[in-house]
Amino acid sequence: MGYLIDYLKQDVRFEESLKACMNCGMCTAVCPAAEFYEYDPRRICDAVQRGDDDTLERLLKEDTIWYCGQCMSCKTRCPRGNVPGELISVLRRASQELGYFHQSEKGEQQKQLMKTLQGNILEIGYCVYPDRVDPDYHPEQGPVWQWYHRNIAAVAPKLGANYHGQGAGALRDIPQEDLDEVRRIFEVTGGMELKKKVCDE
Amino acid sequence: MSRYWNEYQKAIADDHYFYERSCIRQTFFPGSEAAFLKILREELGKDICDNPHQHTCTGIGYHSDVVPFETTMTVVARLFSLMKECGHKNYVPSCVTSFGVFTEVMAKWKENPALKEQARQYLWEACKREFEVPENVAHPSDIIYKFRFDLKPKMRFQLVNRFTGKPLRVVEHIGCHYAKIFPEQGVGNAEFPYVLAGMIEAWGGEVIDYPERRHCCGFGFRQYLVQENRGYSIANTKKKFESMEPYEPDFILTNCPGCSMFLDKWQYTIAEMEHKTFDQHGYGIPVLTYEELTGLLLGYDPWSLGLQLHQVQVERLLDKIGIAYNPREKYTGVDGKMLGMPSKPECLMV
User: From the list A13, A142, A198, which residue is nearest B311 (CB)?
Assistant: First the structure.
């Protein structure tokens, strides 16, 4: 046992995510990421369970931990009640906090995700908003999305939405006082600090 | 049998709900959220609060690992404090990702009361607010499921093919975070998904149990949000389409707004990339949210429900059910003015 396993154990989710893995491989069998990538959650559970510093450091610097899609199919199927998908989230957080994520191509993508998603949450109070799903960057959305994106101000009210309006309803603007409180939560609970670590290094 | 089935049921509150809007549902299916509130208030006479001070639960950020758990649980605590202010105790998140986040946070607080105290301290320090844990958390589909037989007599249409007189064949997808994280929180559990199937059967349709029914829609959070990773997303969705194709479903019914969007839009992308559709006629398989389906059967106008926002066109399905619609109103704005047509895909027929 070493420094890194102790570091991982500080995450409140660690204990529930890995109780005792018996290496049956059920998680890998059901995993959508394992079908698409060279990815094996069973091996990750095994590596963390061993707790060896060198192995863990290598893991935190590799693409592997960024392959999971967080569907949590593994949670339902694990006969020991482990949650490999949650363990991945613990590893990803450590990789970002310790600066290891820079050393993998997939890990480096966190910079872009951090700017986009935290930007959306703190600026407008939503993770996703139609104005920010630009058809040029989302060709897979197809021509109907292009049409809606172009005509949303005229179409949204027909669907009962309150697009950029005040008060209740879908797509309303969230009042500044509420955005200020959300920002304050990010400051107090470490959300801002994580962003700084990922984006400023 | 009923004794065993009881293990797959969940408690769903009767009335007095606090509604939390979904980032994804209001972005892609705003008509569904409006329809849900209308159904509850006008068809079922229920009390549901739509608080203007609500905001994201951070779920997409949390599962993309850009928001720490402590931040997410405190944002959740703020949303619970809004519910408390409204005098409600029954929380209804419109999104399956949110539903998973709320059930996860509440489970962690139950396992570790010190964590709940930490959330109280964080929320007080940040916002000078206090919260109470809801007595009941139900996804909106749980509520429609609970009252499916109350809604049935009000419905103008059934899930019956009017040309053949046979039940429409429906595949459903409940979304991973509805029941895979905490199976006991989903109607029918993760093994026997019944929240949508119960609606389909009650309203005259036939549920098709296809092999990859429980497979992920392919969202994968960072696997879709980062453009370079989208191969993961479309490959997993394609696996579902290939699995359901031999059963020739009339439509796909979905629980989660993200799943609804991917199952609709990836059909277009696959058609353009590989000249492949998963129906016999080249139009694709229509995808409906449960709110859209309920609204349609109640007789709501398809274009007020937002069905014109679907890339896979729904008219052939509406014709089968016998729902009348005005094609000239499809692409108009709120003032009735024509807004032009979306361009036609090269391969997917529209």
Answer: A142
